[in-house]
Specification:
The chain is mainly α. It has three helices and no strands. Helix 1 packs across helix 2 (about 20-50) and helix 2 packs antiparallel against helix 3.
């Protein structure tokens, strides 16, 4: 899905004559896509079982995914592999 979004953004940038940074576009899509998928999952859960998820779990999940996406985009916390 991310590859499709990056290719589409590259095509649109080339059509407009704008310089395109593929790494930046991939990074941005990897950061916001889990949040969008979380909302889609919640919508489907609300259709199937409306009272299954409570507000606290929803907020904790949304907060965690948002912090993870922001960390992925801005690279605040880096995990270093020691050899």
């Amino acid at each position: 899905m991310i590859t499709f979004l990056v290719k589409d953004a590259k095509k649109r940038a080339e059509d407009k004559g704008v310089v395109f940074n593929e790494a930046e576009s991939r990074k941005k899509n990897e950061a916001w896509l889990p949040i969008i998928l979380f909302y889609v999952l919640l919508y489907m859960m609300a259709l199937v079982a409306p009272n299954l998820i409570i507000v606290e779990f929803y907020l904790i999940g949304l907060f965690g995914i948002t912090i993870s996406g922001l960390n992925h985009y801005y690279e605040w916390i880096k995990f270093v592999k020691e050899d």
